[in-house]
Predict the structure.
Amino acid sequence: MTSHPEIVPSVVDRIKRTLVGLKMPCAIEILDATVRQLERGEMSALEAIDALLTEELTLRENRRIKTALVMARLSTIKTLASFDFSFQPSLDKNRIMALAELKFIDRTEVLHLVGPPGTGKSHLSLALGVEAIKAGRSVYFTTLADLVGALAKAEREGILRERIRFFCRFALLIVDEIGYLPVIPGGGNLFFQLVNARYEKGAMILTSNRGFAEWGDVFGDPVVATALLDRLLHHAIVVQIEGSSYRLRQHAELVPEHIRSKSLIQPPPIPETTKRRGRPPKNGSPDHIKG
């Protein structure tokens, strides 16, 4: 029977002091148990080092993710694992899982999730946001109403440029609920300025219950809508969800048939004469927007 020499207590104490200096509390917590396993020959020295470092790295990664989730201002934490794909057969699960590989972020593309209320658009956008955070990408989540409100406030205070730069810092900007609430006067112009600043520089996820052909109504001006769609559909992935509301699944019989079966209009073609660049004037006059 092979004997295993005991580790000198003074060495263990010195390791603990070192771990304290390195701010590795998790490693300190499992050190004594790891030493006992070493003494019993249940692991090698390299395995012991690996166990200590892995435990500490896991703790730090969990802290990073928790902090990033708070900074991203996700309205709630959703996962792809908790999404009921069986309830929305119009969705290709393989396609969504491919999006979770986050290559669209690397390509600075815009992902559009379009469909009636309750079909899972926000859930998917939040879940993809969580995946991006886990992968170390910077994420920010907001509704269109809150985003436009923040930009309008910044414009009144004379710091619009700085606020736009703030929203451009994130690798992924998620804008939820496009079309749910009316956009304030001039809001479409402000949103355009942000979209134009992020164009081909940062990825976005947009969720909407309105077809692209309806964006003129959403933003109160078809010229603003065309300018927005020119950039938002240039490098875009469109996922259209056609199905019933998951939230109303237990009361479907109470919902009128024409609402249950409503599908959204496919994206309209962008006029070839529309230019890729240009910024609306600060006064928000739609007559001067260059598409």
